[in-house]
Design a protein that fits this description.
Elements lengths: L1 H22 L7 H14 L3 H12 L3 E5 L2 E4 H16 L8 E5 L4 H13 L2 E4 L6 H11 L3 E5 L14 E6 L8 H8 L13 E5 L9 E5 L5 H9 L7 E4 L6 H13 L2 E3 L6 H10 L4 E4 L1 H8 L16 E4 L8 H9 L3 E7 L3 E6 L1 H6 L3 E3 L6 E5 L12 E6 L6 E2 L7 E2 L2 E10 L5 E6 L4 E3 L2 E3 L1 H9 L4 E11 L3 E10 L7 H11 L8 E4 L18
Parallel strand pairs: 1-10, 3-4, 3-5, 4-7, 5-6, 9-10, 9-11, 11-12, 12-13, 25-26
Antiparallel strand pairs: 1-2, 7-8, 8-18, 13-14, 15-21, 16-17, 17-20, 19-20, 20-21, 22-23, 24-25
Helix pairs in contact: 1-8, 2-3, 3-4, 3-5, 3-9, 4-5, 4-7, 10-11
C-alpha cells in the first residue's frame, strides 16, 4: 500500500510538472531568479500574494493590468500592493481581519485583493448590483473592518456601520487619483513579511433562491487543482486575457489569479458593453475572452453595423462559467468566431466540477463535459446511494478547491468527502456529464419526475428562440406541470403551439409545458444567472 501511494504521488507530480511546463508556468530561467521564485513559493504558499511576487520576479515590466486608467506592469502592481498593504496595516488592520471589496472590473479590485492577501486578511467580494439594504445586511453579518469601493457606490454605504473604514478605489478612470492611489503614495513599497496564516476569501453565493451566503475558502494546498484545469483549458504563459466576467464573482476572480500565475496581460473595462468588448479583443489581439453565457448572448445579438471589422482573429479560448450554458449558444459562437469555447461547470461551493471544450460541445452543446484531473464526481439518490449508469442523480464533487463552509455556520450537504452542487444530472453513453437542473426544481407531473433543465436546453436550441426559463407550477389535474418563459429571436417568430410541438417531437409528452409566455428578456443577476423567483 505504501508503494502504491508513492507511485500515485510520483505520477501526480509528473502530471503537474508536464502541464505546468506546457503552459509555460514552469520554464528555464537564470539560477538566481529560479532560487528567488522557489523561495517565495516555499515561504508564501499558493496564494494570490505569492503569485504576485513571483510574477514580478519572472515578468517584471511586462504589462499585467490594462484598464481605462492605463497600464500597470507586474512589478508596478507588486510594489503598489506592498504600499497599499502597509497603508492599511497602519489603520490597525492585520491577519484575519476582513477587507470588503465592492469594485467593478478595474485595477482597484485586483490591487485590493492582493493587498489583503499580503496582509493575511480575509477578502470579502461584494456584488456591484447590491441594493443599499442588501449591502448593509451583508457587511453587518460578515463584519469587515475596511470597505474598498468605487465612488459610484458611496451613497449605498449610508447604512453601513460608521466604524467600517471606507477607501475609494475608482473615480471613473480619470486623471484624478483615487483615495486608494493616495494611500499607495503615502506608504513605502518594500516587501512585507509573509503572514503566519494564508489569507482567506469570502465569495457570496448568487442569491437566486434567497439571501446571498458567504462561502469561505482558503488558497488551495499545492498546484494540483490548477494543473487539472489547465490540462483541459489550454492557457499559455504571456497570453492576453480580456476579462468581461465580474471580478467579484468566483469565475472572474479565479481567472485574475490564473493570469497572475501565467504572467498573462489582463484587459479590463469597468462596465461591460458588447461591441466595445469585442473591439478590445481585436485591439489587444487577445488570446482569451473570459465571460459568462449571457455576455456571449449580448455579443451575438449585436446589430450587423456594430460588428463591422470585428475579427477576433487571435482568440483561442472563450472560457465560460457562472450560469447554465443555453443549448445552441456555444455552437452559434463557434460558428461565428471559431472553435474556442471552454465551458466550466461548477459552483461557488465546489469551484469546478467539469469542463466541456470545443470537441465535446460540437458533439452536444448541452454537455458539461468531463471532470478535470483531481476532481471526482458522484451522482446519488435521495438516500445517498450511487445511482445506476445513465440515471439522474444529485451531483456531488470532491477536489481540493471545495469551500470550508458558509460564514453563517451552515454548510452544503456532504457525503464521504463529496460536496453537493445543488444540481441533478446524469452521465451519457459518451461518459460526459449532463445537467438536468436544480435538485429543488424537480416536479412530479402525473406521477412522472420532470426536470425543467432538460426542457430548457431543448427549447433554447430552437433557431427562433434566444433563451428560455422553465419552472414547475401547481396544477389541479397533474399535481404540477411546466410553464415556459421564452424570449423569441424576433417578435412573432414563433408561437406557443410550435413550442409545444417542438417539445413533443423531441421529449416525452409529459415534459411539454402546459403554458408558454413570451417576454422581451429574462430577469438576471450580475453574473447572468436567471432570477426564476422573479418569474413566479
Amino acid at each position: 500500500m505504501l508503494l502504491d501511494r508513492l507511485a500515485r504521488t510520483v505520477a501526480e507530480g509528473g502530471f503537474q510538472l508536464k502541464v505546468l511546463a506546457e503552459t509555460g508556468i514552469v520554464s528555464p530561467m537564470r539560477p538566481d531568479r529560479g532560487a528567488r521564485v522557489l523561495g517565495t513559493l516555499i515561504k508564501g504558499g499558493t496564494t494570490p500574494a505569492t503569485a504576485a511576487r513571483i510574477a514580478a520576479i519572472k515578468h517584471g515590466e511586462r504589462p499585467f493590468i490594462v484598464d481605462e486608467a492605463g497600464s500597470l506592469s507586474f512589478s508596478e502592481v507588486d510594489l503598489r500592493t506592498n504600499a497599499l498593504a502597509r497603508a492599511i496595516a497602519r489603520m490597525g488592520i492585520g491577519e484575519g481581519d476582513g477587507i470588503a471589496i465592492m469594485c467593478r472590473n478595474h485595477r482597484g479590485f485586483i490591487e485590493g485583493n492582493l493587498a489583503a492577501s499580503k496582509l493575511g486578511a480575509t477578502a470579502l467580494f461584494l456584488n456591484t448590483m447590491f441594493s443599499g439594504p442588501q449591502l448593509a445586511e451583508v457587511v453587518e453579518r460578515e463584519g469587515p473592518k475596511v470597505l474598498i469601493h468605487d465612488a459610484e457606490f458611496t451613497e449605498l454605504l449610508k447604512d453601513v456601520p460608521e466604524d467600517v473604514i471606507r477607501i475609494v478605489a475608482w473615480e471613473g478612470g480619470g486623471a484624478e487619483p483615487s483615495g486608494l492611489d493616495l494611500l499607495i503614495a503615502s506608504a513605502g513599497d518594500e516587501p512585507l513579511e509573509f503572514p503566519a496564516h494564508a489569507a482567506r476569501f469570502i465569495i457570496l453565493t448568487s442569491g437566486t433562491t434567497g439571501s446571498p451566503k458567504g462561502a469561505q475558502r482558503s488558497s488551495p494546498d499545492g498546484l494540483g487543482g490548477l494543473a487539472g484545469l489547465l490540462d483541459l483549458i489550454p492557457h499559455r504563459s504571456g497570453e492576453t486575457m480580456v476579462i468581461a466576467a465580474p471580478l467579484f464573482h468566483s469565475w472572474g476572480f479565479i481567472n485574475s489569479v490564473i493570469a497572475l500565475t501565467l504572467g498573462a496581460t489582463v484587459v479590463l473595462e469597468s462596465r461591460f458593453d458588447p461591441a466595445r468588448t469585442m473591439k478590445l479583443v481585436d485591439r489587444h489581439s487577445a488570446d482569451v475572452l473570459v465571460a459568462v453565457p449571457v455576455l456571449l448572448q449580448r455579443i451575438l445579438g449585436l446589430a450587423p453595423e456594430d460588428t463591422v471589422g470585428i475579427r477576433a482573429g487571435h482568440l483561442r479560448i472563450t472560457t465560460l462559467s457562472g450560469s447554465a450554458l443555453p443549448g445552441g449558444l456555444a455552437t452559434r459562437w463557434m460558428d461565428r468566431y471559431g472553435d474556442s469555447v471552454y465551458s466550466l461547470y461548477g459552483s461557488t461551493e465546489v469551484a469546478f466540477a467539469a469542463v466541456a471544450g470545443p470537441k465535446q460541445l460540437r458533439i452536444d452543446p448541452t454537455t458539461a463535459g468531463f471532470p478535470p484531473r483531481g476532481t471526482s464526481l458522484r451522482l446519488v439518490d435521495e438516500a445517498g446511494g450511487d445511482v445506476a449508469d445513465g440515471e439522474t442523480g444529485r451531483i456531488f464533487v470532491r477536489n481540493n478547491m471545495t469551500f470550508e463552509g458558509y460564514t453563517g455556520g451552515d454548510d452544503k450537504e456532504r457525503i464521504d468527502g463529496f460536496t453537493s452542487t445543488g444540481d441533478v444530472g446524469h452521465f451519457g453513453l459518451d461518459g460526459m456529464l449532463y445537467i438536468d437542473g436544480r435538485d429543488d426544481e424537480m416536479i412530479v407531473s402525473g406521477g412522472e419526475n420532470v426536470y425543467p433543465g432538460e426542457v430548457e436546453d431543448l427549447i433554447a436550441g430552437h433557431d427562433d428562440v434566444i433563451e428560455v426559463a422553465v419552472l414547475g407550477i401547481d396544477d389541479e389535474k397533474f399535481g404540477q406541470v411546466l410553464k415556459a418563459w421564452v424570449v423569441p429571436a424576433d417578435p412573432g417568430a414563433i408561437d406557443e403551439a410550435r413550442i409545444k410541438a417542438f417539445v413533443r417531437q423531441n421529449l416525452a409528452s409529459y415534459k411539454t409545458p402546459k403554458e408558454v409566455v413570451f417576454i422581451d428578456e429574462l430577469p438576471r443577476n450580475a453574473t447572468g444567472k436567471i432570477l426564476k423567483r422573479a418569474l413566479e
